[in-house]
Structures are given as structure tokens and as C-alpha cells.
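Input (structure):
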């Protein structure tokens, strides 16, 4: 069912489009057709990590309240992962839940953030520490948006594609390994479709992230710690860059645990360093990063838990170390 039919079938009268202001500037008429079927409002925000906070959520709540949105009203999150995270949180909590549709515009959101119902905001620089699980009723993936995505943003999402290949698709890894450059033309629609299908299977089995879904977090324990270190120092790093580095560290840990072979670890490292420059950390950074890993949401009873790779394309058990 297309978006107009979905709106008519559900007799939706009010729509708020929470959007990345850059996307709205690039595609001002993209949702014009909705004005034929409903009352449409735009809430545009600057899609930056610092805006993933309670103020943005309160801003959205106030807007919906002033415009008299009810539980049959619709919020469309139109943008990348930051927009999907904030929009999901607003939709999940306003009047205990209004309709939600995600229209991802970045590679990262297309293959990951727009699916699976996780939303969240940061608190005291800790990533996604406040949030809910709230599934969108629809996710509309239009890969034409990738044509205008800056290369930095493409690399941001590419890290999640690498992660997906490493945890679940060896054949894709073999294809990715041949790449020497990144641009939107080399991103195949079938990779996006496969990554979405893989995630959806895990989410169907474990929506609340207590078991099998956690493998999607490979590279993220260290990745989130790196993001927090940067935020504490008032520096910026994209989620994907931090995850790419996190993958290297966690692949190394997988090897140290006796799982991944040294040559597979080297293969992963060399591939990632082809596209992402290495980061250098001081001794005190390393101490901070280790401490931040102890705040990871996967940990149990204050014990660190990592996702390990058994081999390329397959994860092992979640191991405490
Ligand atoms: N981004 C990981 C997950 O949705 O579980």
C-alpha cells in the first residue's frame, strides 16, 4: 500500500513531518502530494548528535499538542538516524503513541535506524540511554535519496553495511572486499534489501533486544564509547566512523578470545583502514573508553559483554570478558 492509500485507509487527518532541514531544502516538494489527503505540518531540525536530547523531544510534543494531534494522527520521520531516533521517541510517547512512518534518507537509516522500532536520545553524552521500542507502521525506502548524500554520510552508513556483512553475510563481504572507492553508484539495492531482511528477522524474534538482536551491536560497544569520548571533549565523530573503529577493536577481541583467526582479523582491519583513517588514543583516553564500555546497555550485573565474531559472516556467543 502506498503512503496516500495508507493515509486514506486509516482516515488520518493530521500529519507532522519531522525532517532534517537539509533534506527539506533539497526536496521541498517531496511530500506535496500528501496535502491533497491531509493537513500537513513540517517540524524541521538540524540533524546533529547534540540535538538528540530531551529538548528536541519536548519541542515535538509541544508542536503536536498545539496542533491538536490525536492518536490517529501520523508522524513521519524523514531523514537519517538522528531524525528516526527523535521522531520515534516523540511518536511513541505523545498520548502514549501515535502513528509512525519512517522515510529514511541516509544509507545508515535505510539499512538500520529506520527499522526495528528502537528510538532514543542521549543523556550526559551516553548514547541512546533513554528510549523505547516502538515499531513504525511503515518504512518507505527510496534509494534515490542516496544520490545527494554527501560522501561522509555514505561512509557513515557503509560502516553498518560492513557490520552486517561481518555478522551475517559472508558473500556480501566477498563483494565489499573488492571495492576501492565509495560512492552512491556502487551501493547495490540488493545489499540494502538483504540487510533490511536480516534485521527484520532478528527483530521479529527479539524486539526487545534481550537475545539474538544484540548481534546487531557488533562494533557498537567500543563505537558508542568512542562517540562518548568525542562528545565529552566537544569534538564530533560520526556514528559510522566510531562503529568502523569499534569493529576493528571488537574483531581484535574476537581473535584474543580464540574465535576469529589472525588472518581474518587482518583482512577486516586492512579493509576498514582503506576507507576510514585510524584514530589515535592517549593512555587516559583508553582508560576513559574502557570505563565507558562498562556503561553499555548489553552489560549484565556490571560485567562487560561483547559480541564476538566466530568467523567472517558469523557471530559467536555474547561473551563476558
Ligand atoms: N541498531 C541496532 C538495533 O536496532 O538493534
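Output (sequence):
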Amino acid at each position: 500500500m502506498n503512503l496516500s492509500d495508507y493515509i486514506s485507509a486509516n482516515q488520518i487527518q493530521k500529519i507532522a513531518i519531522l525532517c532534517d532541514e537539509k533534506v527539506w531544502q533539497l526536496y521541498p516538494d517531496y511530500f506535496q502530494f500528501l496535502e491533497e489527503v491531509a493537513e500537513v505540518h513540517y517540524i524541521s531540525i538540524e540533524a546533529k548528535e547534540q540535538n538528540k536530547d530531551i529538548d528536541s523531544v519536548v519541542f515535538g510534543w509541544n508542536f503536536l499538542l498545539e496542533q491538536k494531534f490525536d492518536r490517529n494522527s501520523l508522524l513521519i520521520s524523514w531523514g537519517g538516524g538522528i531524525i528516526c531516533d527523535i521522531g520515534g521517541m516523540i511518536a511513541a510517547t505523545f498520548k502514549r503513541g501515535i502513528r509512525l512512518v519512517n522515510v529514511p534518507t541516509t544509507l545508515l537509516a535505510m539499512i538500520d535506524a529506520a527499522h526495528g522500532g528502537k528510538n532514543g536520545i542521549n543523556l550526559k553524552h551516553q548514547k541512546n540511554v533513554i528510549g523505547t521500542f516502538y515499531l513504525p507502521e511503515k518504512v518507505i525506502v527510496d534509494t534515490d535519496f542516496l544520490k545527494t548524500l554527501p560522501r561522509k554520510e555514505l561512509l557513515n552508513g557503509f560502516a553498518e553495511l560492513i557490520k552486517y556483512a561481518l555478522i551475517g553475510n559472508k558473500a556480501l563481504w566477498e563483494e565489499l572486499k573488492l571495492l576501492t572507492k565509495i560512492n552512491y553508484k556502487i551501493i547495490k539495492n540488493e545489499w540494502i534489501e538483504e540487510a533490511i531482511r536480516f534485521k527484520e528477522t532478528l527483530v521479529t524474534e527479539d524486539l526487545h533486544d534481550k537475545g539474538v538482536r544484540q548481534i546487531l551491536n557488533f562494533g557498537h560497544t567500543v563505537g558508542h564509547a568512542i562517540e562518548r569520548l568525542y562528545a565529552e571533549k566537544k569534538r564530533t565523530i560520526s556514528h559510522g566512523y566510531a562503529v568502523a573503529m569499534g569493529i576493528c577493536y571488537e574483531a581484535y577481541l574476537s581473535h584474543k578470545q580464540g574465535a576469529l583467526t589472525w588472518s581474518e582479523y587482518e583482512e577486516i582491519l586492512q579493509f576498514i583502514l582503506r576507507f576510514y583513517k585510524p584514530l589515535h588514543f592517549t593512555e587516559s583516553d583508553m582508560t576513559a573508553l574502557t570505563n565507558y564500555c562498562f556503561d553499555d546497555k548489553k552489560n549484565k550485573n556490571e560485567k562487560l559483554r561483547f559480541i564476538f565474531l566466530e568467523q567472517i559472516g558469523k557471530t559467536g556467543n555474547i561473551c563476558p570478558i
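Notes: Residues 107 and 157 are 5 Å apart (CA to CA). The chain has a mean pLDDT of 96.
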